[in-house]
Amino acid sequence: MKRWQIITPLALASVVAIAFFSAGPRVPMDGDKTSALAISEKESQEKLDEVEGGFGSDVDLGNGLILNVSDPEVFKAKDFDALGAEGRPLLMNIKLSNTGSKELDLASFSIIQSAFDSDDSLSCFDVFEEASGVAGLPLETIVAPGKSLEFKWAIVCPTVAGDKLYLTFSATGEEQITLESTVK
């Protein structure tokens, strides 16, 4: 018998045995948040820049992008069926200004999270109703330097008046800001 006929199967068996007995790749299991591997994985992930500010004030998101969101007010939809869910309808005026030197594409604008003091498992739902002028982002989402983009955004929140509301916005997907208000 030739030497390569013995070595090749042994090498393949060694590779398979190492892969089988080493417990596979070194990644945390789904739902694992406490192991050293899961903690180091979370720390190594790139975090979004989180900035601070408030409703009704200009917030610098970086890259020359300024966000101003009015304090959520009661929204009276002209088409009640557009609300889609029971809860408190709220309306905000949103203004995004480009004070930088490059065009910005705001097609990724969204409310990425909502939470309440009473129950953080609940979340708000976006509402779009053309009859009231609430259509979400305008069709043109490119904002030239020195220009602004303004639009209305409505949400329905399954909570009661007086509850604390936390909304987390992202304008370009590279940053996030959490604003705090009281449900009207």
Structure write-up:
With 184 residues, the chain is α+β, with helices and mostly antiparallel strands. The chain has 2 domains: 3-44, no CATH class; 49-182, Sandwich (Immunoglobulin-like), CATH 2.60.40.1240. It is 15% helix and 35% strand. It contains 2 helices and 12 strands; from the N terminus they run ααββββββββββββ. The chain has helices spanning 3-21, 36-44, and strands at 49-51, 59-62, 65-69, 73-74, 88-98, 104-105, 110-116, 125-127, 142-143, 148-157, 164-170, 175-182. Strands 2, 3, 4, 5, 8 and 10 form a 6-stranded antiparallel beta sheet that branches. A 4-stranded mixed beta sheet has the order 1-12-11-7, with no helix packed on it. Strands 6-9 form a two-stranded antiparallel ribbon. A hairpin with a 2-residue loop joins strand 2 (59-62) and strand 3 (65-69). The radius of gyration is 25 Å and the shape is elongated. This is DUF4352 domain-containing protein. It comes from Actinobacteria bacterium BACL15 MAG-120619-bin91.
